[in-house]
Amino acid sequence: AANFADFNELVRLCIFANVSLAKMVVGRQNTIDDPELENRLDIANDYVRQIPEPLITKFAEEASNPALYNERENLQKQLFQAIDEIILVVLLSNERMFKGLLLDLAPMERDTEVIEEPKYGDLMEMMSKIGDNLANLLEAGKNTNA
């Protein structure tokens, strides 16, 4: 179980995971030609970039002020909703990109073309790391009162 001594390392890991995810999203935005999806991805990515700092602050303050629990829960919920939106947009953009690709290929090229599904496993792994890091931060905050 995480404890207060682990807090600094957990904060570093949480920030690293969020920054990494934000960079992946920016890279992904360059491949999306649908303005609506690009905008949705941009808005969700803003949350991923902006929420970690106040969320970590709430984790640290909550140990001495339990009234902040709801504020932290709200920020955490917003972060997870942003990550869910990123995953949804990536899936939608994959679907649209490959539908368009198949329509653009001539029938003979389509028969010989090997199409691999794009991998969004890295994104899913990063989301899992963020969730794990947030859970560890919460555990470390709780252990400061013990």
Automatic annotation (TrEMBL):
- The record's principal subcellular location, in a coarse class, is cytoplasm
BP GO terms, sorted = cell adhesion
Q: State whether keyword Cytoplasm applies.
A: yes
MF terms from GO for this chain are:
actin filament binding
Q: Where in the cell is it found?
A: Cytoplasm
GO CC annotations, alphabetized: cytoplasm
Q: Which SUPFAM superfamilies match?
A: alpha-catenin/vinculin-like
Q: Which residues form a coiled coil?
A: none
The record's keywords, sorted A to Z, are: Cytoplasm
InterPro entries tied to this protein: Alpha-catenin/vinculin-like_sf
**Under what name is this protein listed?**
Uncharacterized protein
Species of provenance: Paramoeba aestuarina
